[in-house]
């Protein structure tokens, strides 16, 4: 009986989960070779390859600065991982015969990411611009934000809108976060306690002062950035106060949903309307080939007539919609402007520890041309 027990224990040990024991019941992979390096074209992107004899698949475990990791499985022995910070990071490569049986090697990779973001509070000195005249168009209204205060064309929305302006936003809008100086309108979002909120910002509008039906609209602006930051240059129908939203219609000339790579370099153009009692939406996005929208000025435009609305970024068309169908009659009426920087909300989510404050949206001019 004693010999039988010893034999049983040996068999149980031989068929356990050992990764590199000579007694494993399957053949382990051999000759594991690998490369792990940062892509020369995309900052922070690490590309890895691995080969081994008798490997059925590979896993690559990429560690970050906190010690957390993400595992990428690959039958072909190829993987990539996007780092969002500079540093030297551990990478663990395994060649598997099965989930339990594998050989492994560890290495490190050094990542360097150039910070594309401008210093907080600095107004860019470069960027795209557009003319004061276009063939077959007349400039019917503009604000170049000269002087030291807003003109009488603008008023402020103040407070929280009752429920975060319908989007669960986190800021309290107040006039003190608006500044006009050096030929710019500056709206700042700040992290500060005010009236039960942890953030403040501003929201200005031309309601009951300036509204327009059709034309070309150009707005030159430098945008804020960061998780939870939501700047918008947009319009609502003049009948908003009587019919409400979305029956009044909404034209979003530009929205940006901040949050790092893939967000701070992308803007959206959208319309919302009432389609027989149901909210309807249509929109597109535009992404910079390099850099982010906070680095310099860009011009956000629409060309709007009785048949369509077309969106442009720096005169590059990126979206268009036909508005001739009867449910879209909202867009055959006058609209007024709203400029704001929201913090948090349904779309962007809340700020996190990486979000820098104060953030600012700087508007150089808004111009309306009509045929």
Account of the 3D structure:
This protein is mainly beta and 371 residues long. Helices cover 6% and strands 47% of the residues. The protein contains 3 helices and 25 strands. Strands 8, 10, 11, 12, 13, 16, 21, 22, 23 and 25 form a 10-stranded mixed sheet that branches. The termini are far apart. The N terminus is likely disordered.
Write the layout of secondary structure elements.
Blueprint (H helix, E strand, L loop, with lengths): L1 H13 L15 E9 L6 E9 L3 E7 L5 E6 L3 E5 L4 E10 L5 E10 L26 E6 L11 E2 L7 H5 L2 E3 L4 E4 L2 E11 L2 E5 L1 E3 L5 E2 L2 E8 L6 E9 L2 H4 L6 E6 L10 E10 L2 E10 L10 E7 L3 E6 L2 E7 L12 E9 L15 E12 L1
In brief:
The protein has 371 residues and is mainly beta. The chain is built from 3 helices and 25 strands. The strands form 4 sheets. Strands 8, 10, 11, 12, 13, 16, 21, 22, 23 and 25 form a 10-stranded mixed beta sheet that branches. Strands 9, 14, 15, 17, 18, 19, 20 and 24 form an 8-stranded antiparallel beta sheet that branches. It has a 4-stranded antiparallel beta sheet with strand order 4-3-6-7, with no helix packed on it.
């Amino acid at each position: 009986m004693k010999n039988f027990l010893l034999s049983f224990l040996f068999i149980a040990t031989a068929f356990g989960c050992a990764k590199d024991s000579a007694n494993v019941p399957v053949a382990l992979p051999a000759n594991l070779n690998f490369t792990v390096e940062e892509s020369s074209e995309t900052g922070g992107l690490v590309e890895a390859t691995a080969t081994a004899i008798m490997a059925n698949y590979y896993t690559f475990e990429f560690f970050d600065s906190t010690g957390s990791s993400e595992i990428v499985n690959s039958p072909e022995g190829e993987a990539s991982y996007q780092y969002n910070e500079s540093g030297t990071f551990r990478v663990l490569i395994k060649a598997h015969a099965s989930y339990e049986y594998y050989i492994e090697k560890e290495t490190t990779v050094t990542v360097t990411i150039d910070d594309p973001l401008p210093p907080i509070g600095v107004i860019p000195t470069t960027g795209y611009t557009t003319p004061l005249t276009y063939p077959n168009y007349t400039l019917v209204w503009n604000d170049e934000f000269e002087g030291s205060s807003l003109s009488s064309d603008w008023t402020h929305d103040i407070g929280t809108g009752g429920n975060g302006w319908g989007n669960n936003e986190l800021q309290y809008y107040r006039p003190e976060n608006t500044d006009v100086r050096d030929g710019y309108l500056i709206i700042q979002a700040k992290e500060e306690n005010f009236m039960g909120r942890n953030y403040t910002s501003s929201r200005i509008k031309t309601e009951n002062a300036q509204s327009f039906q059709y034309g070309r609209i150009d707005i030159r602006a430098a945008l804020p950035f960061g998780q939870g930051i939501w700047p918008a240059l947009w319009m609502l129908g003049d009948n908003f106060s009587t019919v409400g939203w979305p029956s009044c219609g909404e034209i979003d000339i530009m929205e940006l949903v901040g949050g790092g790579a893939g967000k701070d370099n992308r803007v959206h153009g959208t319309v919302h309307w009432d389609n027989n009692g149901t909210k309807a939406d249509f929109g597109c996005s535009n992404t910079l080939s390099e850099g982010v929208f906070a680095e310099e000025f860009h011009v956000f435009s629409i060309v709007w007539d009785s048949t369509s609305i077309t969106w442009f970024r720096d005169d590059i068309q990126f979206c268009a919609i036909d508005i001739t169908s009867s449910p879209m009659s909202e867009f055959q009426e006058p609209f007024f402007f709203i400029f704001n920087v929201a913090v948090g909300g349904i779309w962007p989510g809340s700020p996190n520890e990486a979000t820098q404050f104060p953030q600012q949206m700087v508007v150089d001019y808004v111009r309306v041309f009509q045929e």
